[in-house]
Design brief:
By secondary structure, this protein is α+β, with helices and mostly antiparallel strands. It has four helices and three strands; from the N terminus they run αβααββα. The protein has a three-stranded antiparallel β-sheet with strand order 1-3-2. The relative contact order is 0.20.
């Protein structure tokens, strides 16, 4: 497996968000084939720079479990347009 830099992981997260308005961290994990904790850490960094919002949901409609998703902020959408 190829090693991905932190920047490359963040780029992949942003690309996935351009395709889908909101995406769960678990879905990102499977879509990008990157570990959950790594996805979570990079999303927290993106949130720090106000590029994404992290949303904690109390209940998943399918299984009733809590989950976390992310979405682009307006600033993040502007950045995504220019990349």
């Amino acid at each position: 497996m190829k090693y991905l830099s932190g920047l490359e992981i963040k780029k992949r997260i942003l690309k996935a968000l351009k395709e889908e308005k909101e995406i769960s961290l678990r879905r990102l994990e499977t879509k990008l084939n990157i570990g959950y904790n790594s996805i979570k850490r990079h999303c927290q960094e993106l949130e720090f720079f106000r590029i994404v919002n992290i949303i904690k949901h109390n209940k998943n409609a399918r299984n009733g479990r809590p989950y976390t998703s992310i979405e682009l902020t307006n600033y993040g959408k502007d950045l995504a347009k220019n990349s």
